[in-house]
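name: query_chain
kind: protein
chains: 1
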Amino acid sequence: MSSPREVHIHYKRPRDRVQVFHQLLVLDRGDVKVTLAERMQSSAPMRIESTVVMEEGSDLVWFTFPGLWHDIGRFHRADGTFTGYYANILTPPEIDGDTWHTTDLYLDVWLPPGGGPVLLDEDEFDLALGKEMIDPDTARRAREEAERLMAEAQAGTWPPPVVREWTIERVHEELGR
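structure:
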């Protein structure tokens, strides 16, 4: 097994905030790229509907789909407990070797184990649209993507099989850990 490559994901939040995430590339296919964000740093646990879904030391498995308007994360607590699927609605990533660029479009979809989908951050999305931080056409496309994912989750067809197959255990095994 070869050593995993590190990729650098430049994640822009309109207007000018950019975060760079350094993750290990675990699977590199034309239709999906699977990365591991190890031991997340966090000033406070991330909660959705009062449930801790990510905390200091959590490992997250990310799925980037070239050409699509979202990515998906498999969220875990620091002890490895799976907490759910999280989709960022974003611009299709521009992938140039180990450097990737995308822009967050505020809306997120959350799917907890055994529960129904939840649309997150509509208030942030509306505020960004009102302040013209995203243009109306991009906003329309973001809303369509979020609604599509919500409908697919409700129908039981989202997330796609590759996301369900690449568990944290499988990723760790692939990395020899």
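note: Helices lie at 122-130, 136-155, 161-165, 168-174.
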